Amino acid sequence: MASIDEELLHDEEENRREIAFIREQLPCELKEKYTDADLQFMMDAIGEYFFESGILETNDDEVDIDLEVISDYVCQAAVAEGKGPYEAGEVFFVVEADLDFQEQ
């Protein structure tokens, strides 16, 4: 069994890989717009959306995921946390890349 420190290091490395993947997927004009901290916040908010929406608990073979709804959720979370403001049309690309990373 891995220690807590080993698990934290693994999670940190996985986050770095995901951020790099997201940056590669973003349109050129967005690649440098967001800091790693911005992208990490968005990734966390996306995960929070899935947890709160109940999508993770469904037994359905296919689930309809609306990227625009998730993008809006991330933007609202950013405002609530004093981040951003982020534009939903731009966050959409981050959400799309995040889901692509998760599907690998």
Anisotropy-based shape:
globular
Q: In terms of per-residue confidence, which ranges show pLDDT below 50 for 5 or more consecutive residues?
A: none
Radius of gyration: 14 Å
The end-to-end span amounts to 25 Å
Number of domains: 1
Give the helix proportion (percent range): 55-70%
Report the portion of residues in β strands: under 5%
Which sheet architecture does the biggest sheet show?
none
Q: For this entry, what is the oligomeric state of its chains?
A: single chain
Strand-and-helix sequence, N→C? HHHH
Mean pLDDT: 89
Structural class: mainly alpha
Strand tally: 0
| Count, helices | 4
Structural summary, described in words:
This protein has one domain. It contains four helices and no strands. The protein has 104 residues and is mainly α. Helix content is 67%, strand content 0%. The longest helix has 22 residues.
Secondary structure elements and their pairing?
Layout: H1 4-25, H2 36-53, H3 67-80, H4 88-103
Helix pairs in contact: 1-4, 2-3, 2-4, 3-4
Give a quick precis of the structure.
This protein has 104 residues and is mainly α. It has helices spanning 4-25, 36-53, 67-80, 88-103. The chain has one domain (4-103).
